[in-house]
Amino acid sequence: MPDWFKRSKSPEVPEGAFVKCTGCNAILVTKDFERDNKVCPRCGHHHPLSADERIAMLADEDSFEEFGNDISATDPLAFPGYAQKLTTGHADESGRNDGLVTGRASISSRPVVLAISDFQWGRLAGTMGSVFGEKFAIATDIALEENRPLITFCASGGARMQEGLVSLMQMAKTSHAVAKLRATNIPYIVVLTHPSTGGAVASYASLGDVIFAEPGATVALSGERVAAQAQTQKVPANYRTAEFALEHGMIDRVVHRRDIQSYIARTLLFMQSPSK
Amino acid sequence: MEDMTIIEFETFLVELDKNIAKLKSVASREGDTAASNEAKQLTKERAQLVEKFFRKLTAWDKVLLARHKDRPYTLDYVAALCDDFLELHGDRAFGDDGAVVGGFARMSGRSLMLIGQQKGRDLKERQRRNFGYMKPEGYRKALRLMEMAERFSRPVLTFIDTPGADPNVPSEQRGISEAIARNLREMSVLKTPTVAVVVGEGGSGGALGLAVADRVLMLEHSFYSVIAPEGCASILYRDATRGADAAKAMRVTAQDALELGLIDEIIPEPLGGAHLDIATTAENLEKVVTKHLDVLAGLSVDDLIDQRAKRLRALGKFENSVERWRTAG
Asked: Residue B113 in contact with residue B155, Cβ under 8 Å?
């Protein structure tokens, strides 16, 4: 077989030049996909983002100053497999100690505090353990001290089973932190992303002055399996989604990812005095 | 005996008691001293067996005891402890949740708002009370009553006994997450003393939704868990039947919670469990609850709120270093 024939069978495509949409299987150009913040232009499916990608989308350039990475989990129950997950998470080049990323930033020149969940960290599904709770509480304390709005993006499987009852208590801790904000006129904005479930939505993530959600995000108390087992009646087509939560009055708006920064900026414009 | 669960052990005791009764009747009917002696011996051994078994209860035994079909429920304690109880109903928005009862109570000469999760005894009542799974309207009713207690300066006493919050479609439609979250937020700053007692099952967020308090107490054989042991087992071992292993791994007992610094005190149960002697259990409960309510009553509202804020802010187990995990890899 002549050489020229062989070569023509495998055209030179740089690795990773294309990605497949997990919503509609469309083949997309990676460069365009990333420019669109990983939203499929065909079907609108919102693919997962890391905390860093969210911060880049949201915060004014170079404005993000991270805090809260100087503490770590203790594996209080010596729970099977937890130490391994923590070690994996800490080995991440970000140098982070948890799936909750906290820091000061500005959005459209307004100083804010961000608390952004990273679902991937340590393969712990953005769950709420002691470090999550403490970082959220620190973020709230700084918001109160410096009169900065607190903006949180939720992506969580709920309380962190591996810390047992200690992690259930993080629901009480974060909700109390929100109560402190609520006693002031400091804005607290929640954005629910996929998935926002369990203890997260049964605590801080359902307590925003304003709650936005990304299209198609799972928003529900019960996990998929629990929900499936417990069902005693017919399930609506959009059950456990952001759209379902909107329909039933549980959130303010479903917001396309490309608009989220401007929706937050408009919210802050309403809530904060014009001098800011 | 070693491998028996508490439920199997109870069945064994029933058989043993039958034998003892038989021996006793033979002894009295025929004046058989050998039978009489044997009955005495067995009775003595029975007591030793019970004591030995209860000294080594596993986490799973505690789960089974907390879920025992004869376990006292909130209304049993109300009957045993309250001189008066005026139950109030409804969330003023949607409905009345049978899985939680609440109202004005008189206990040890004190007026308080008593709110408790309630399972049913027979099938009909169990269905009416949704097996203790509270719905959004239940959390909202409870909050309405707590805010009333705050307005009239009465303490709040809650009894926790639920497998979890109701996970069905109508509860999601009416905002079960929001209802729990709101309770956590409002209970964290409620301007009146609050005491929560886990009397049976402390089932995750559904339990916590009534259990953010100045004092959290647990009965000796109750349990309190972030996820049902069976749910944890199906994630951890991909086998929901390994609840016993999961209960151990998650450390769900009252003794664990006390050791972890998450509760204030354990209320002792009579030997064999609360269901064998409700009166004594209620008496023990009253003693401990009253002690804590007396202390809380002596605090100003500002001090109360301040102390509760400190408790909540301090929840968690972490260390001020990341070295452990950096070097572990």
From this structure: yes
